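Suppose you are handed a protein chain with no further information: no name, no annotation, nothing but its sequence. What can you learn? This example shows the usual starting point.
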Amino acid sequence: MKQVRHFFALACVVSFTACSKDTTGPGNTTNPPPGGGTTTESDVFLAGARTAWSFVENNTQASTGLAKAHDTFQFITTWDIASQIGATYSAHELGIIDDANYDGRIKKILATLKTLPLFQGAAFNRFYDSQTGQMVDRNFQASATGFGWSTTDVGRLLTWLRILAVNQPQYAAQATAIKNRLDMSRLISGGTLQGVDVDANGNTVYYAETGLGYEQYAAGGFALWSERASNSLNPTANAQATTVLGVNVWIDGRGNARLTSEPYIMMGMETGWWASALSDQAHAVLAAQQARYDQQGIITIVTEDAMPDAPYYFYYYSVYHNGNTFVVEGPGYGTVVANPRWVSSKAAFAWRALIPTDYTLKAFNTVQAAAIPGDGWGAGVYEGSLKPTGDASLNTAGMILEAALYQKRGQPFLSQPIS
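A reasonable first move is to predict its three-dimensional structure. Written in C-alpha cells, the prediction is:
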C-alpha cells in the first residue's frame, strides 16, 4: 500500500494558453518567439522549469525551509520533502538559482530533517506541518505521537539524500546523519519494506508495503544506503503478465497495486532503470498509453495528481488496476470514478525527457497549456477539452524541474549502481 499524500478541497481553475509549437525532436526549432530568434525544445524545458520553480519560491516557509504541498495546503509528507530537494537541486544545476541561494535552502531543509520528531522514534511521520515542523494526526491536527510511516515516502527521501551525499559531498555528513535517525530494523522485515498506520480507532497496523513499481523505487532508495530489502528490490518476483490494448505489461500478482507512470519515470531520471526488467516495464507502460491514443485518438499520459475536482481532490490514473484498464480512483480502494481524466503535466515532461518519440512530443506540447505563470504548473489538461486543470502543486513542480535537468544532461542524476 502506498501512502496517499494529499487531501485538498480547492476549486481554483486558472487558464493559460501557451504559444503553439511545432517541434519534431530534441533541439529542433519551434515557431519564432516575439522579437525574433528561435526557440529550441531545450528552451521550452527550461522555461517550464522556471515556471515550476516559482511554486517552490512562493511556498517555502522561512521557519523550516520546507515548501507547502499546495498554495493553500501547508501539510507535507516525506515524499513532498524529497520532491522539494529534487526541485532545488535541479533548479541549481539548471542555473535558475545561484550557489548561495541553493546552499542556504539545502542546509535549511537538512537542518529541519535532522530535528523533525519521528513516529515512535523510528521513522518520519506520515504528515508534518510545513510551517512548524510538528507531526500531525490523520485529521491534520498537531500531534505528539503522529499516525505512522510510509516506507515508500521514506525511500524517495533516501534517494535524494544519497544524490546529495554523492554528488555534493559538502552535504554528505548531514544527509548521513538524517539517514541514521531511522530504525531500519523496523522499516525492513524479512526482506520486505514495512509500513505502519494508526487507524481512526487508534489501532496500530503493521503491513508489508508492496506494489510493483513503487516498491522497487522505494527499495532502491534504501539500497543506495546499503539497507537491502531484497524481496522488495526484485522487479519480477511477484510480477504477472497481462496485456493492455495489445501491449504486454507486468502487473503485481499479489493484488491491488496500481500500474502507472510515477515510479518508472522517477527511477529513470534519478538512478536509471537499474535492471533490464525495469527498463522493459517502463517502455511498456508508456507503450500502453500510446496504444490508447493510437486506437482511440485520446492523448494519454497517466499518473497520480492533486486535482481541483470533487469529491477526492487527489486521484490515481492507472494503466491497470484490479482488472481494469485506464481507471481513475481517489485515495484508498473502492473509489473508482469516471472523471476527472487528464493528461499529466509532470509525466508528459518526464516521459519526453526519458524517451523522446513523436508521441511523447505530442503529449509534451499538449500540456504546455497547464503552466500558471508566476505560480507553477497545474496537474495537466483535461482529456477531450484539453483545458488546463489549474491548481499548482509541489510534486508537479519537482518532477518538471527534474525532467528539465534530465533533458539537459541525458543521463540519470546518480551513477551509483543499485543491486
